[in-house]
Amino acid sequence: MDVDGGGNKRVFHRLTGPSSDSKNQKVCYHWRAGKCNRFPCPFLHRELHPPAVHPPNGTAPSSSKRHHAFAASAEDHSGPRRVPHNNTWGRVHGGNAGGNKFVRKTDKVCNYWIQGNCTYGDKCKFLHSWTMGDGFSLLTQLEGHQNVVTGIALPSGSDKLYTGSKDETVRIWDCQSGQCAAVIQLGCEVGCMISEGPWIFVGMLNMVKAWNTQTNTESSLTGPVGQVYSLVVGNELLFAGTQDGSILVWKFNVSTNCFEPLTSLKGHSLPVVSLVVGANRLYSGSMDHSIKVWSLETLQCLQTLTDHSAVVMSVLCWDQFLLSCSLDQTIKVWVSTQNGGLEVTYTHNEEHGVLALCGMHDSEGKPVLLSSCNDNSVRLYDLPSFTERENFLETRGTINSGRPWWPIFHRRWNGSSESMEHGS
To answer: Region (Disordered) spans which residues (predicted)?
Structure first.
């Protein structure tokens, strides 16, 4: 590299690190956001490591024990609770420098590679991969649905995967072979689908179907008005978000082996499209741009959150925080205040609307967030810094909208492997 010119010299220092006379050089803010287009850029395109700090006895500090977990049920007590406001959401630390290695690009997947006849091979200027990054690889592609896939469920102890679609069918897939084992014709669109233990719940027009995969029993829960868009189980109750803005509640009766209607929660003015349970609370996201917080004990509305300016597509409990995403192109992190309410402690901005959120941990126990975006991609972020780790690419329609197929990706963490769903 020619470093004689002033501009090239700055590029050299930016790539190789600050010299003795550039100790005050700063990291490029736009590079951190993945949007720097300055060539050359006078600022660093890498993270600065903080000076190592060791105890007085010279021993290296031990790693702290992981304590974060994603909420799976009300018993996890993982919903938002009050924490100090000096949090680290959205901040990139020196120790996290390796995570910011994927710059957001406009690269597209090669259409000829998809068809299996690209003649350029490694020299092709388009991507020959479904992901930007090396943490995931395509395991298989399940084809058969003729319209949008609106729900994916894997019941506990089952070797079958269930998918529901707007093509008015539920397909059952063999997890070993990847083949479709059965097709169930429903006669109306599937709005959502979840699994809880051996049960599969399917949200449909004016009803919820409940199937027990162990006993092969089936129930039809009536009461909803219009399409059922969201389902969740918590505190031994089944909640269904409906098209008319209501949240219907059923309680399972063990003696009669059936679900009995309990009540209907009123408050939203438009369809309820997202539900999650955590810390003895029910959180509901709606097309009316609001999130409502309900007590699982009294089933009363405790608070209405109105910071989003478009449809609240998904809500997620993570440790003491609540995360929400919207078509307003933001992901918001909520934390409890002194009076027990919730307020926004950090807002992550996306270039497009956000359709769904999902949380997981890598093999080192580090929390990561999967964000399905309205630009046909799924992005994976390290938390709490929101550093982008990976980008799953799509070319055949948006995630959760307009897609007749969905792939399953294979996750690889430090040599270990685990399969997971993509695109529910």
So the answer is: 1-23, 52-92
Tell me if 274 sits within 8 A of 247, measured CB to CB.
Answer: no
Which among 371, 316, 420, 383 is positioned nearest to 70, based on CA atoms?
A: 316
> Cβ distance 139 to 117 under 8 Å?
no
**How far apart are alpha carbons 359 and 276 in whole angstroms?**
13
How far apart CA 215 and CA 200 sit, in angstroms, is: 12
CA-based nearest residue to 328, from 292, 298, 300, 352: 352
Residues 363, 77 contacting (CB under 8 angstroms): no
Q: Which two tokens stand for residue 336?
A: 């409890």
Residues 242, 243, 244, 249, Cα dihedral to 10° = 0
- Other CB atoms within 10 A of residue 94 CB: 11
DSSP code string of 296-307:
TTT--EEEEE--
Residue whose entry in the numeric block shows the structure tokens 């438009």 = 270
Side chain identity at residue 148, one-letter code: V
Q: Taking the CB of residue 194, how many other CB atoms lie within 10 A of it?
A: 19
Can you tell me whether residue 79 is helix, strand or coil? coil
What does the pLDDT read at residue 130? 57
Supply the pLDDT for residue 395: 40
- CA 230 to CA 243: how far, in whole Å? 10
Kindly report, residue by residue over 36-70, the tens digit of the pLDDT. 767 677 777 766 554 444 444 444 433 333 333 33
> For residue range 122-167, what is the model confidence (pLDDT) as tens digits?
777 776 665 555 566 667 778 899 998 999 998 877 889 999 999 9
User: What are 146's two structure tokens?
Assistant: 């003729």
Statement: the pTM of the whole predicted model exceeds 0.90: no
